[in-house]
Amino acid sequence: MIPVSAVANSIESSLIRSIFNLAKQLDDVVDFTLGDPDVQPHLAIKNAACESIQQGKTRYSQNAGLLELRQTISQYYKRKEGFDYDPVTEIMVSVGAMEGLYLAFLAMLNLDDEVIIPAPYYVNYVQMVQLCHAKPIIVDNPGKEELSFSVEDIEKAITSKTKAIIINTPSNPSGKIIPQEKIKALADIAKKYDLTVIADEVYKCLIYDGTEFKSIVAIEGMRERTVLINSLSKEFCMTGYRIGYVLAPSELIAAMTKLQENVAACAPLPSQYAAIEALSGKEDYSKNMVEIFTKRRNVLYEGLKDLPLIKAHQPEATFYMMVDISETGMTSLEFAHAILEKAHVAVVPGIAYGKSCDKYVRIAFTLEEDRIKEGINRISHFINSIAK
Ligand SMILES: Cc1ncc(COP(=O)(O)O)c(C=O)c1O
Q1: Which residues contact 259 (CB under 8 A, 6 or more apart)?
Q2: Are 177 and 296 members of one domain?
């Protein structure tokens, strides 16, 4: 028998995947679990990947990614946000945002360092910090701000070991955008205690109703202490291409690039060429995303809002809707199992995102409208059957 390490043993497999796997064992499930859009990337993006293969551009790239892609990312940020990042020293391409996050933690954290993770949070942050032999400090605030956290609670959680705070805005799973006053207060705390901010902005491409979003990097004094994480997965529906990127001060990018040599060598080349096309600005290849998902969000919300015992929260961004199920008297895990078994609908139990989320389930509307409508019918039937 091969002994497994303590760190590997400490990692729990995610509830999202366990519900997803259970759903796979049943017939005809409406699966609302994964944040993996069913929409295809634009044909020009696919063609760029295929051409790279046909032309034999399929070898390794530099560990930090093709310079041409880093230049494209730099220009893209300049165009969209007005930020200036040097493609040679301040940008690296990763295997999805996930590897960017992991390499950033690996490059920053020493044994027992603490990383503050406000709930509700993206599940993998906790495990990635643990993989780096550091400590995730979850700031949860049951009963206070709904689906959010308080800055005072964050400040109270800071100790001499705190290295970084993670902010994810727009947020998976809450679908909320952290308001600007809160972002400013977080920036003040980061400066006061000399902390790094990891800003995961993979959903800034999917904001509804023209709601304003500004990155923490735009605040004076934050560029030098922020690790900006982004990805093409959601913006261009390229989840399986596995392309993410990190914008950060040069010393961190240099360390991450060294680590990349030992982890993945580089992101896949055909995907890097596809990313150059996607971000080129020749055409707005992601513009119909907001349109498609606004429609789906509205269909889902309209279908759920008048049902008894549950309360759907209309998201400001992302393709996730949190639904309060507390009046059913079930925990989120009980609800997720019951609705899967009785109605063949798969949702994620909120407990996966922090204790205060146990009264919610998350519904990812990454399915076609007809399938969403079928899901609503089944949810309605299930809820009405327990409401009697
Ligand atoms: C908040 C957040 N960050 C990062 C990721 C990972 O994205 P990628 O596919 O680029 O690794 C996800 C994916 O669902 C996410 O929700």
Answers
A1: 103, 106, 107
A2: no
